Amino acid sequence: MTSTDVSKDAEGSGPSGYAAARLRLLTEEARTGPPRRAALAELTDEWLTGLFAAGAEGLRGVSLVAVGGYGRGELSPRSDLDLLLLHDGGDSKAVAALADRIWYPVWDLGLALDHSVRTPAEARRTAGEDLKVQLGLLDARHIAGDLGLTAGLRTSVLADWRNQAPKRLPELQELSAERAERQGELQYLLEPDLKEARGGLRDATILRAVAASWLADAPREGLDDARRRLLDVRDALHLTTGRATDRLSLQEQDQVAAELGLLDADTLLRQVYEAARVISYASDVTWREVGRVLRARAVRPRLRAMLGGGAKPTAERSPLAEGVVEQDGEVVLARAARPERDPVLPLRAAAAAAQAGLPLSLHAVRRMAASVRPLPTPWPAEAREQLVTLLGSGRPTVEVWEALEAEGLITHFLPDWERVRCRPQRNAVHIWTVDRHLIETAVRASEFTRRVHRPDLLLVAALLHDIGKGWPGDHSVAGEIIVKDVAARIGFDRDDVTVLSTLVRHHLLLVETATRRDLEDPATVRSVAEAVGSQGTLELLHALTEADALATGPAAWSSWRGSLVADLVKRVGAVLAGDDPAEPEAAAPTAEQERLAIEAIATGSPVLALRAQTEPPAEEQSPGEAEPLGVELLIAVPDQPGVLPAVAGVLAMHRLTVRTAELSTLDLPDGVEGAVLLLNWRVAAEYGSLPQAARLRADLVRALDGSLDIAGRLAERDAAYPRRRGVVAPPPRVTVHPAASRLATVIEVRAQDAPGLLFRIGRALEDASVRVRSAHVSTLGANAVDAFYVTGPEGAPLPGEEAAAVARKLEETLRG
């Protein structure tokens, strides 16, 4: 059925005929994308024309005008109808009656309607006061009635826009920046707003408005295709949800991908990100050009006066590097530059731009991309040095890198980049796509180049540490293989290639070990020393670890994590220097521990103390200033079953996050009878202030005597938590690490974080009749990774089969 057939089918049959024809059009599988949007607009035009004709009989000087997206002929299934009833100020009662004859049938069908009734003068005045109205009128399209009235409005609105552009475009840019701040960047969001986020459909419309001002025009290549892709995704979103929404929620992504014939939700997001990146880059270039034109207009009259009138000022060009100059606040190619003969020129220009903190000119990037030659293998020293200089330039690196990537120059130099480009990371901890995270890591690493002996290796490792993502299996293992090839191609020698591959293979080693293993255990320290191999590599790995975490997001790094990693690095450094880590000895109890233990025996109940922990002030801090690392919680309890789950449950009830936990039996002074369990835990409040110690103690007493139903209380709270539809967590996994310690069996639990998780684990381990020596708790986003050092009742590690059985039982409990 053609659009004409559909239109005829709707004629003379009123709203019901239009609704039926509309439904048939939207369910046609053969017609999607721009043809369907255009056909829907044409069908709607025909229906509204009929409504107008029926109500405007004998009425002159009136027209019906589509504005905004409808004016552009881009109707998505649930789009608003943006309509303007334009009149010449004649019979106001007749115009009002005509409006009712049009608006009410639209509302009766449940269609969203954005409507207004204005004279041309009123429309122009409103546009002058409201930028949104102005932008909508720039796309005004005649539907029915007095064509001359509509044409006159279009002409005057465009003239107004061009005359006022020097004043209104800066205002529009400011509003766009505020919206981007609120909505975020479409190319990085897991649940993006396809219209309002930066790089979305709203920005594409704004670029059309800027072009209509005649002050500047956006780079056209790929822009229409990017806009079409986002509109296609919005169409599919409307059809799958049945709602007028622009928010691509997690629970809808698989359905939307299927509607578009895509492999999966990740493929969908990657296409959305690629489209958003094109629009964002075009916006950056366009707004930069608008600023340049407006500055030139402001300066030109003064310059002409200084030059005596007729002479035209010449833009100053300042040399930056061989073949590269600065002009009008941008980096451009020198007149003598020959990119077709100089394969290093793109890297040299990029490094010069980043070092100067200036953007690369679009013309320069496109010229280099059109004529760039492949670099020899291995790269010449200059190319490698320019890449390192670019990576070490700090924050300006991001904008320059994006300019190169927009024209395909990054994948020209680093073909392996293609797999990580625009790749989403479905992890609440990560705030960037894989490729942007790698650049952010290099930016962070540039801050640490003064503290390592080989800053070039640090920067290249930062750029490539996650290059294995997108390949099957462990991305660190895949990355090690890729980096060996890439580093050799870039021109690093064999020893440097070995260091880079080690850094990539073990870029998670320090933080995972520091937060999940017992640093007092010699086996832990030796295993890290063996993996790292040298002091120089350890130094680089320490800096890379911090840069990686800082570039991941706020949840990935803290003073507490930093202090644990620094402690591990110190211990590993001692081993690499030739010191042999001594077997840990039971530390003598402190005076406070003895006091608590004696009080616990005397009262027959638990006693506890809370003490804030801080780190020494950093060099850049004021003297005496320190950052809190958490709160140390000391608990002494007469030896009895169920202590671990009881304490964990009480802490969960009070919304306290456990970071580390150590449990030991305390040797009491002579003359004091009884056994005391000592728990030394570090905790932090999820939000708000810490509860009073007296309240914690009272609840702990009740938990131990059985009068406090912890499981029931936590279940009630869990049931009250809002759940997000469509987010299905992977099942928990429990593994045994037999070689991680000679003193205990290490059982690692990976599960979805939830209130009371540590309580459930503690109760399961208690039921298995094992003793927990220490617990190392790590939470990244929604994922908990907890390691438990357990022994049998006699204090020895568990035999292999028994340890496996405990792990299986724990996993079954958590899955249940």
UniProtKB/TrEMBL annotation:
Keywords: Hydrolase, Magnesium, Multifunctional enzyme, Nucleotidyltransferase, Repeat, Transferase. Residues 434-557 form the HD domain. Residues 1-319 are annotated as: Uridylyltransferase. Its EC number is 2.7.7.59, 3.1.4.-. Its cofactor is Mg(2+). Uridylyltransferase (UTase) activity is inhibited by glutamine, while glutamine activates uridylyl-removing (UR) activity. The keyword Ribonucleoprotein does not apply. Residues 632-715, 746-816 form the ACT domain. GO terms for molecular function: nucleotidyltransferase activity. Belongs to the GlnD family. Has four distinct domains: an N-terminal nucleotidyltransferase (NT) domain responsible for UTase activity, a central HD domain that encodes UR activity, and two C-terminal ACT domains that seem to have a role in glutamine sensing. Modifies, by uridylylation and deuridylylation, the PII regulatory proteins (GlnB and homologs), in response to the nitrogen status of the cell that GlnD senses through the glutamine level. Under low glutamine levels, catalyzes the conversion of the PII proteins and UTP to PII-UMP and PPi, while under higher glutamine levels, GlnD hydrolyzes PII-UMP to PII and UMP (deuridylylation). Thus, controls uridylylation state and activity of the PII proteins, and plays an important role in the regulation of nitrogen metabolism. This is Bifunctional uridylyltransferase/uridylyl-removing enzyme. It comes from Streptomyces osmaniensis. The lineage of its organism: Bacteria, Bacillati, Actinomycetota, Actinomycetes, Kitasatosporales.
